[in-house]
Amino acid sequence: MANYSLLLGAISAAFLLTSCAPLPHDPKETYILVAANIKIPYWQTALTGLNHAAAEMKVKAAMFGPATYDINAERDELRRAIQQKPSGIMVSAADAKLLTADINSALQQGIPVITVDADAPDSKRLFFVGTDNYNAGRLGGELLVKLLNGKGNVVVFTYPNQTNLTERLHGYESVLSGYPGVKVNHAVDIKGDPTVAFDTAKQLIDTKAKVDAFVCLEAVACPEIGDVVNRASMNPKPKIIAMDTDQRTLTWIQKGVISATIAQRPYTMTYFGEKVLDDLHHHPPASLTENFANRSFSPLPTFIDTGTFIVDSSNTAAFMQENQAHGQQ
Predict the structure, then answer these.
(1) CA 223 to CA 215: how far, in whole Å?
(2) What's the rounded Cα separation, in Å, for the pair 102 and 115?
(3) Start-to-end CA span in the chain (Å)
(4) Which of 37, 177, 296, 321 has the fewest Cβ atoms nearer than 10 Å?
(5) CA distance 195 to 188
(6) C-alpha–C-alpha distance, residues 143 and 249, integer Å
(7) Between the CA of residue 199 and those of 55, 103, 193, what are the distances in Å?
(8) Between helices 221-231 and 194-206, what is the axis angle to 10°?
(9) Element (H, E) at 326
(10) How many CB atoms lie within 10 A of CB 19?
(11) pTM of the prediction?
(12) What is each CA distance from 289 to 104, 109, 239, 276, 280, in whole angstroms?
């Protein structure tokens, strides 16, 4: 990871480039965000950031991707985006290995490509804008240890082949390595289907399996788990640590069913990402396919961390009020 001060310098430089001197924009200038499962609230928030940046710059923006979690459909949508020869592309790589060749192809065709939310580190993408997922996992891990008082059995819900979720799990594991009394007994692949989370949680509770906490590394599982736990006649009920700020997640926090969620900034990822793509479109490096990560005088960072924070009962109301002010439900 880049040094924090270097990241701040990179962010400041990019901000100056994109805000102080207005760039000439062609009305046909278009920036495309490609993601999977784009109908969920997380990506709708990201779309708000994308559209806000486009409105400020008076350019066009669009989000491509399947309405449900489908990695092959996301690859098809990325290829469709490339065919349109846009001014720049942002990609959230649900399956980095699957998308790497197409990311590289776009760059070879002169289209700037960055990754947001989920990285494709082995591709030639110019850099990654998003969460430091390892540290997000550590943040969750420290909270989990506190909630369980250092002892308990944990079930994790994830997509095992998605790079950002793997990094989050490693962050949890790094914290839990110092607390042998907290054990992850089961990791559930929900396969993009929230009913898998619901059915698995219900089966575990119905069979009276020893589960002291449920941890979700992605957005769609924990609202379902909250529903199951809320219905269960058990005391004490398992702790739940969610990911992201789905309205249902926030409601379960208000009701005391979900303990907390680790919040990302998808709006920031796409708003800032589009501004930087715009600068790359107007001031491209000599080659888009150069290995900038191995250059000490690189004009580009490798990673820009948009940050994470905990939302719990102490700040849920304020967070929901801010969401409403920005048209998010």
Answers:
(1) 11
(2) 13
(3) 34
(4) 296
(5) 12
(6) 17
(7) 43, 36, 10
(8) 30
(9) none
(10) 10
(11) 0.88
(12) 8, 10, 46, 17, 13
pLDDT in tens, 191-228: 889 999 999 999 999 999 999 999 999 999 999 999 99
Angle at 195 between CA 191 and CA 198, to 5 degrees: 115
| Pairing, β 152-158 against β 182-189 | parallel
Q: How confident is the model at residue 234 (pLDDT cuts 50, 70, 90)?
A: confident
In the structure encoding, which two tokens stand for residue 324, read together? 């409403």
Rounded CA gap, 84 and 292, in Å? Answer: 26
* Token reading at 276: 């930087």
CA 216 – CA 218 distance, rounded (Å) = 5
Amino acid occupying residue 62: A
Residue matched to tokens 């994470």: 308
Which regions of the chain does DSSP assign to beta strands (E)?
A: 30-34, 60-64, 88-91, 113-116, 128-130, 152-158, 182-189, 213-216, 239-243, 260-263, 303-305, 309-312
The answer to whether the CB of 128 falls within 8 A of the CB of 104 is no
- CATH numbers and ranges of domains, the chain: 10-14+21-131+266-302 (3.40.50.2300), 133-263 (3.40.50.2300)
